[in-house]
């Protein structure tokens, strides 16, 4: 296991994770879920594509839902620091002989489509159309009062290798990680950030690459409690997969939901500031149950096993065999 | 001053305060305020009258808004324990030579209209049409999440005399009171209940009788904070008159609002259980500023001086001259 | 099944449930749990007995913990309306040929010990020594901010018969109940009150009589979330048995805890006002999983099966065989 | 007025504001306030100096309280990105002919003392001794559950000039600002950040330089409500100066407190993420009362006029004469 420090001078500047593009079977049904139930703001619908954002977000979209036969994750979107960073990103991926393509995206500036060495489809951009913040339009607050996009969490068949790429090359910074009890110990999961909280991208050992969930930030635990009550009494009971609870890792108060196509969303709050360059990552043992949940509740098997496929990505079995303790 | 115990065997059984009937100038404007902003449930509109209730209330109405030239309080409604109590109430008021009349009220059973010895118009009933509780229809929760009607608070020109009537005759029980520093000290304000929390009816020394406010119960302080944010950003900023804050008396976390006609509503939470028959009333000195607010904020002059007139009630100056400390 | 109305003129007036007396193996360990962790106020220790109360309670005690070889529930305490009610209670139980005895209790006035027809040990009193309320001593708020004792919940081998006694004779009022799918349907569980919220006493079909739990009232869901975090990180993780969650029945936001002797406590909030004499009880089908939990979480087997024995009470199997759905 | 963009390539990298060093008259009294009442964690006392930190902070200190005859702010501390940044900072300030000095500080690595062109005393460092995070030691949570140091807010006699220095040279990024109604309009107040939320440093037009307040971040509004209750009932009522309320600027839910020496602390929550390099600053008109408070409450005169002097800094009158609307 190596938790080498992140590259202090990455080839291009990733500001933060920014948005996700998901295939959904029925746009109306997805709107009912994401907008009417969860309370995301609908920016607009263009053809078969629905653009949503959180209450504080001025970016045109953080969720892009495309009506499609395949319920895949089509792109994980990251904002770069400048137009020049886009060009530097293209050069970097080309030099690695990885696929790159300039995409045309509604309401975004120049957009670079790439695939990382493990098959995950990414898109990079610098500018996006700006909308009004709804942060002080309190009359529009609904559902979970989702403020903003927070992070991606992916199953990875090679956590060490993927970590080495994102931290060692792209400058993602490690905040917390899980190590196995093997000799030598192996890296089993990592939480990495660019924007200054616990993560923009987390990786967990498993069949992959697959998207485990996207996380959205909500102001507090009561927003999540109320969301449970609303979901349970408006026909969305089945959406509740796990929680509410407290993760040991990241200190998050969490709720995991499944949308009508099975895509998982985490309502997430109460992590911490991580901008210090000398922040020491927190190590958790794979066998430490508090890692998953401070309060001792078991997660359902689906949470450990199911995830969203990435469009066009081949799935491989995990390199590491160690498994967490799952409640019976 | 006398805080004689309440009559343990009152002539008829008042279960609780139940509803208020208010004259309003513009029904649409009042609906926009009470339903769209505050989040009360609209049961129905019948002609020029709007019937509203709280989320947990199965009674057809706790707010009756009648479009009218006069922005008065037309009735304070109390639920009695049985039909027989209604007849006993009629006999009691007649024997006192006070006005009584059997009223016809939409969605209520037999209703007795009376006026107390100080001119306040009351109505008594036993049964009301029942509606669905919205308590577990969480998708309908809006605004302040108002659960139920809680209390009346009135200016009284004769707090001692009015107390003697409601406690000494009708069996209202004292929970807290304010006394002056006069020699002998005089009763300046009282909080009296029937239903088991701090009050169904409070009286404060002042020009009256007038309605100071009706109180509605909300689950917690965060509902009130959110209500402030919503009112301030949806065109209702002027509705906020005082608070949020913490009363010493009753321990209430409060917010005082004025509706479009000036009727005052208190959003109220966090008082305590008072069913014990031997509960000792809590005494507050008029000069103790913590009585009004634990945190030291001054109330605006309007809060001390303005109130809703009762239809047909003559207003008299207060018997007691002592005044609370008002911040400059 | 019969859900006959409660006796409107009971032989004596039960004001509310008031306190519990529990045998505990180690008083220091129990103090560490109830006082240091949960935040109950310690009124005093007298010999091998610890007296605790909630923040708003002026009564000397609502928890009486007696160091003892047997971890039993020794008494369920109820407050009566007057000294005369005590004498009426004695006459009533004697006439039923049920055991009665005048007990000597620290800090209580005259106390009557009885056993109900099903073997549950009760004590009745009218006056208790009064202490300062800690409601506005916010510096003493700790743990879950427990405000007051709320209810008893018992396993009963004969829910119908026990209901008939408490409602039909003693005037407890039904608020919610569970019925089986048998033909004819049978009463499976009941929630009955005297004080004006959902319950003072609940009964669930099962081996009994046994105490399932005592409920204490807390202001809101965040107090419960914080309590989970505190318990999980101060060595009390094992105390968390079930929750936090939302019951369909009573609308309670709940957390179930086990003390060091296995006695179960429910942290409870967000039920509703029930003082209306014509309140219609809410019926739940035994097969309706929302009854137990609105959010779809299974309760652990221990929660369905384990309880505290009553001192001196023989345990019998339940009359009704129907069982709720238990998650695998 | 010029709100020129911040320098994208500043001479040295300021990571974030980090700590404050305050003179206090009585260390015991200050400990009673900051530790016992507010709930900051005491790292250690060394001689006449007390070192405190927030619950999530692993840095040794964010508050340094020095028993002293003068109740001044001795230093505003900022963390730099590396040791090399310290040397670059020294070179930069020297080249500006501003005072620099290598200070010896307990529990910090190399520390550079400088004074900005307006007389404000700063200190820069890269490494600080690390302590355990108390974030998951929930048994230690007290008072307002303060998580971390958030920002400095200063009176400035020359907001435009000071802004030009911090943004135009040091790379602080503007998030919100207030402009006068003069022709041409003038910059009246600015909020600037380095760490990714609304501010590390804010400046308000006024006699200065003086420290208006330091802000600390708390999880939510209920922590602030509870803090008010605790302060008001434990002898610290006079500490409450303004709030709780909601600022229009930054969307902060706030409470302003004065410590025993008059130093002002803001309990602060609910601002937003600002890492996007193309974030458009929000403009507020000086006459817009919502800027100060969304709910319409007036701030007391003391809040506009009083502040902590910086040790050794001469105070000058403000360049801009425009004044905000102050409630009568």
Can you walk through the features of this model?
The structure is a homotetramer of 328-residue chains. With 328 residues, chain A is an alpha+beta fold. The first copy, chain A, has two domains: 14-129, 2,3-Dihydroxybiphenyl 1,2-Dioxygenase, domain 1 (Roll); 148-309, 2,3-Dihydroxybiphenyl 1,2-Dioxygenase, domain 1 (Roll). In chain A, 16% of the residues lie in helices and 34% in strands. Chain A is built from five helices and 18 strands. Chain A has helices spanning 27-37, 83-95, 159-169, 221-233, 301-305; strands at residues 14-24, 41-46, 49-53, 63-67, 73-80, 100-103, 111-115, 121-125, 148-156, 173-179, 187-193, 201-205, 210-217, 240-246, 253-258, 264-269, 282-285, 308-309. In chain A, strands 9, 10, 11, 12, 13, 14, 15, 16, 17 and 18 form a ten-stranded mixed β-sheet that branches. An eight-stranded mixed β-sheet of chain A has the order 2-3-4-1-5-8-7-6, with helices on one face. Chain A is globular, with a radius of gyration of 19 Å. The relative contact order of chain A is 0.17. The mean pLDDT of chain A is 96. At the B-D interface, helix 4 and strand 14 of B face helix 4 and strand 14 of D.
